[in-house]
Structures are given as C-alpha cells and as structure tokens.
Amino acid sequence: MKKLLVFLKDYKKESVLGPLFKLLEASFELIVPLVMAAIIDTGVAAADGGYIMKMCLVLVLLAVIGLTCSITAQYFAAKAAVGFAAGLRHALFAHIEKLSFSEMDTVGTSTLITRMTSDVNQVQNGVNLVLRLFLRSPFIVFGAMIMAFTIDVKAALIFVVTIPLLSVIVFGIMFLSIPLYKKVQNALDKVLGITRENLTGSRVIRAFNKEADEIAHFHESNETLTRVQLYVGKISALMNPLTYVIVNGAIVVLVWTGAVRVENGYITQGEVVALVNYMSQILVELVKLANLIININKSLACGNRIARIFELEPSIVDARGQGEDGKTGKGAEPDRIRTADTAAAVEFSHVGLIYAGAGEESLTDIHFSAARGETIGVIGGTGSGKSSVVNLIPRFYDATSGVVKVDGRDVKEWPLKALREKTGVVPQKAVLFKGTIRENMRWGNPDASDDAIMEALKTAQAEEFVRAKEGGLDYGIEQGGRNLSGGQRQRLTIARALVKKPEILILDDSASALDFATDAKLRMAIRSMTDPAGGKMTVFIVSQRASSIRHADQIIVLDDGRVVGIGTHDALMETCDVYREIYDSQFKKEQ
Q1: What is the pLDDT of residues 197-207, one digit of tens each?
Q2: I need a labelling partner for 127 at 20 to 30 A (CA). Which of 22, 244, 445, 516 fits?
Q3: What residues does CATH 1.20.1560.10 cover in the chain?
C-alpha cells in the first residue's frame, strides 16, 4: 500500500490543507463546551438574558466558522482523493497493458477488472476519509481530555482510564478485521468471475439448458461471500455497543464524581456539563474513528491487492528492456528492419513451449523455416498446438526452449514495436471495438486513407457488405461487434490486419465462419498482396479445414504439440497419416 502513496505527490498542498482545516474545525468545536459552561454558570445562574444572548451568538459564530473549515477541508480532501484515484487507475491500466499473455492468463481477467474498479474506488474512499478524519478524531479525543484537565484534574482522570479501554477495543477489532476483509475481496473476485463467464457465455448456457446449474453455482459462491461478509460484519458490529457501554459508564461515573465535586465547591455546575460534553465528543469521535479504521482496513486490503499487480513484472521484455508497450528505452525505433535477403522470413529451431502453471510442454521440438513470400498452412487436431506456434512469432508468448527467428534474427532481439509492425495477426476470436468501421480499420495504420481501407476490405471480401451499410465506413459498430454477423466480424478483423500491410500475416483460424467460396476468394486475394517493401507477404494460415491450406507452399501438420509432417498437400497425402486422416474426414474418398 505504501507504494501507492506516490500518486499523492501531485496533491501535496491538498493533502496538507485538508487535514489542517479539519484541525481548525476541531479546535473551534472544543471551545463549545466552555461557552456552554459560561452560559450556565454566569448567564443562567445570574438570570442575565443579555449575556446568554451574547454567548449564543458566539456559539453561532463558532458553528459558522467550523462549517466553513469543514467544507474547505472536504474540498481539498476530495480533490486529492479523486486525483490520487485517477493517477492510480491510469498507472494500473498502463501497467496491465505491459503484461504479457502469460501474466494475463495467470491473474485472470475478472481479477484485473476488480482491481481497476472496485479496489481503486475503495482506496479512493479510504484516502478521502484519512485526510478528513484520521487527524481530527484523535485530536478531538486527546484535546477533550486536555480540556478536561484544565477544568478539574480529579474528574479528568476518568478520561485517562476510559480512552485506553476504548483504544484496546477499537484496535483489537481492527486487527481481527484486516485478514477477513482480504477474504471478502477474494470471494468477490470469484463471484465476479462467475458472473463474467455467465454473461459472456449466456448463449451456450441456454443452448445446453444449464441455467439451473449455473444459478446454483452462482448461489454457492454468493453464499460463501455472504458468510464471510456476515462474519466480519459481526466482529465489526461489536465496535459500537462496546464503545457506547464504556463511554456511557464513564459518563455515569463522571456525573457522580462531578456532583460530589460541585457539592464540595471544587467545580461549578457548568463545568460538570462541559466535562459531560467533552465525554460525549469523545464518544462521537471514537465511533467515527472506529468506522474510519474499518474503512481503512478495507482500503489497505484493496491497496495491497493493487500493489501486487504492480509487482508483476512482464515476462516478455524486448532487447532494450522495454515492456510490451514499447514506450521506454532509448534510441530510434528500428521500424520494419530487414536483414539479409537470404534469411528466412520465419524460422523455428527446435522450439518448445510450456505455459505458465502447466506441467508439460504444449509444443515440443518444433523445427521448420518459411521463406519470404511463402504461404504456410498449419493444421492439426484440436489442442495440437496450432495457435501456440503462430503466437510465438509476434512474441505473444516466449519459447521456453529453442529459438524463433524473424528475418534471421532472434525475436527476443527485436524491439517489440518493430517486431509487431512487421506482423499482422488475426486471432481466432474476432474482436472489434466500439466506433465506426473506419476507426476500427485504422488500428494498424492510423494514417490509412479511405482508398487504402476499401482496398483492404475488398481483399478481405468485406467491401460489398460495408458499402451496403448505412454510412459505409462511418457505420457504427457496437461493442464487440454484436450488430454484425460472425462472418462479417471475421472479414473486418482480416481487413484491419491487411490495412497495415504487414510483411508477415498470421490468420489464426480466422475464416472459420466463412463459406468455402468466400474463403477461397479471400486466400486468392491475399496471395496477390505485397508487403511495404514490394515483396510478397509471408502468410501463415491456421485452419481446421484442409481446403483452406491445400494450396499452401508448405503445410505443417501438428499432433499433440509435435510436428508430424511438413510438405505440400500431395506429398503429405503420401507420407503423413495424420494429414491424410484429416483430409479424408472432410472429403469423401474417391471410389
């Protein structure tokens, strides 16, 4: 949590002025019992209406000044807390953007969303409360005790006994609550994860009539969260009754002692009332302090959870020590660097891959090379490692053994930005962002003209339906592209990758929603495209369809993370049983 305080550095003035004005308000509040004592001892005792009126005006003045100080303190505290949360949220998002897929897979999307939203809001509330009350409440407590000593030492000894007892209760409950609030947040993470899965997979759930099972699953997780919250709530709920019992008991002793002292002439009746008021102020402030500590506990737990995300270091760092964002480091970006023309566009040399947390290799001894301008087909059964292979090229993951080279150079030696400028990736899941078609198309090339976009759309077989949309390129796409069909989304994501005209194009099973005719036209159009240097693009096509990769220059056949065949279609039909089995399962054998 301490590491997060750096985000308050731009709000030093507000962080000082907020508590300062609260202390000023508290100072005026401590004067009120003395004014009340003067009204009783002087005005009421002497039946002096003018004096009573004058002192009442003093009370009003103290109230106005206290209110002004309180509003000013709230303004500065709120400004500091909101600014702190804005800076924290921005830094957290930027850090998450640097994390590689391995960290994303390990932490989980639902957890990161909770950190960005609920946890940051809780920390913001904690900062606001600390700036307003953390100094004020102890100041009132000890200030009231000191003021009591100025009235009567013997009566004030009751405060000396009461305050430590209250402190034991308050801090004891605090130490019990801190670990429990961590459990609450972890349980909340689980509930959020289940909710996210159900909302994103609602169609699958309904298709399999699993609503009742999912409701039961959610109910179980929600009950766990509820039980933990109730348990910590019961402990926290002890705060108010215990403090009230002690303080009210102290008031009874104080009134009894005060009565004896008044009868003996040591103090006046007004001073007894002042002592009772000071005890009441202590009660109110300790209740505030107790609630403040509970909120601080929650904020500390959330802050520590956020800090743990900041402690995650990106596992993929480029040659100059940059994270995935590519924004740090020195020197010019080697944009689209090419080495000698004799080097292969992509080369895998005995590559192995183990995913984070996995016990076994997902890829084993992958060895092949792809010349510039070649079309490489990658095929295999489900879970054979097709996507894992192509994800190593733009360094979405790093190989755990062996070397992956692009243009004859180890991908780990490439600046990430330059490497990914060379590659265009169309992932399995077609993801579009809210905005116009034009805005989505310019993700890879912000300066792309409308003509260049339409050319890419034509190649991706998307031009016809885009022109048919109202507004054409200005047609608004909803979040996730939910106002488009699956095939339309896939064609637009392919066009988005083509707009940047990459040297290496990776199509990761990205035409699965297209019919065979459209798929064939797409592949023919891509083969005729050139990269920015004027050469043919190197294309990797990952597909379950043998027809999609049948005419590739090389076909790589995978089975259980291993290469079991490399060659042309005709050669593999003769030599590779796995490929022949896949092909025969999709096409009837000639009789």
Answers
A1: 888 788 889 98
A2: 244
A3: 12-311
Please answer whether residues 587 and 546 qualify as being in contact, where contact means their C-beta atoms are separated by less than 8 angstroms.
yes
The fold for domain 12-311 equals ABC transporter transmembrane region fold (1.20.1560)
To the nearest 10°, the Cα dihedral for 560, 564, 567, 573? -100
Contact present, 32 and 84 (Cβ < 8 Å): no
Return the residue matching tokens 């030492």: 153
As to burial, measured by CB atoms within 10 angstroms (0-12 exposed, 13-18 middle, 19+ buried), residue 477 is: buried
* Tokens representing residue 277 in the block: 């008021």
3-state secondary structure of 325: coil
Tell me the C-alpha to C-alpha distance, in Å, between residue 24 and each of 20, 29, 140, 280.
Answer: 6, 9, 11, 19
Is it the case that residue 336 has pLDDT exceeding 60?
no
Query: Which pLDDT band, with edges at 50, 70 and 90, does 534 fall under?
Result: low
Q: Say if pTM beats, i.e. exceeds, 0.85.
A: no
- In terms of CATH architecture, what is 346-586? 3-Layer(aba) Sandwich (3.40)
* CA gap 17, 132 in Å, rounded: 10
Contact yes or no for 447/528 (Cβ under 8 A): no
What's the rounded mean pLDDT across residues 427-439?
Answer: 88
- Residue intervals in the chain for CATH 3.40.50.300: 346-586
Main-chain dihedrals φ then ψ at residue 98, nearest 5 degrees: -80, -20
- Which pLDDT tens digit goes with each residue over 550-564? 888 999 999 988 999
